[in-house]
Protein: Phosphoglycerate kinase
Amino acid sequence: MKTIDDLGDVAGLRVLVRSDLNVPIDGETIGDDGRIRASVPTLVKLAKAGAKVIVTAHLGRPKGKPNPEFTLAPVAKRLGELLAEQNIKVHFATDVTGDSAQEAVQELDEGEVLLLENVRYDPREESKDEAERATLADELAGLADVFVSDGFGVVHRKQASVYDVARKLPHAAGGLVLAEVEVLRKLTESPQRPYVVVLGGAKVSDKLAVIDNLIEKADKLLIGGGMVFTFLKAQGHEVGKSLLEDDQLDVVKGYLEAAKAKGVEIVLPTDIVVAPEFKADSPATVVGADAIPADQLGLDIGPESGKAFAAEIAAAKTVFWNGPMGVFEMEAFAGGTKAVASALTEVNGLSVVGGGDSAAAVRQLGFADDAFGHISTGGGASLEYLEGKELPGLAVLEED
Structure:
């Protein structure tokens, strides 16, 4: 993949950057600005080189039409605050490629940044029709001279601002995309061992392909979160009212057998935090993983399991973690996730937090970003890479 340096002198050029600024917002309050901060180094590099930087990004799922709930205006404000520290001015266009965008591009000075409104306001962005996507890509390309792909969280999507526009302009990968790919290659091609993978989150079905692929690569898989109950059920244990995917039981049994045959250990929790209801104030108790009462549901791995998982992580040289161990948003059910996160900060090697809810969890629980080897900005993209899938947004960057 070409880098920004391969583009040569960008002074005076209009550089279209696809960033990932999809952050949690409540009204105008940004809950976690991690993705915005992650986008800053590439934007600074280009602006300091004298480029006119035009940023396209999305927020949420506005379903192809303007919706004030998903405006990027609060993001533009926060980006402006961050770039002001580098004496870089940020402007905001109130549409994607319309009059506001056209005028703002015309008025943009070298070394300044322009953020376009939510690209998903335009239905062509996510269209399955290549011709429709191409027309939006043409309009985006018309705003710029070159394209830089820096939104790792969307490189697994074949979308106009990610895939199609790269085929219409000289292109390069931004610093964030390059850093993400470097880490993922270490996880898949040459991991230092022992290599431990920690998987959580709600559903086994969301992680089927990654489990299938990592059984071939990892030394141990630690399973927590809502998905663990399908594993426990597959072992013959009752799981009460816990989340369960009955249709995946045979698949999970197959994984348990395959892992055993390959000498890969699948580590399951030995105790579970349960409660009668999915509520923050529901009375929590700890029970054995093989003794979940019929009227209770599991909402976190138990304290002994947290210690056991932490010990496995501490002994590893490479750790990849995707998915919380429990309902970390509720204090009573955050202990397992906190134990895993804390253990990752002590890894003597590479520790990777695989984006999505895991990244949100470590920040909500008070951990600093630099306490980990790497926090991914793209949970879905990371998983698809680890599944062995081709990511369209990366593949197109390798085209001449």
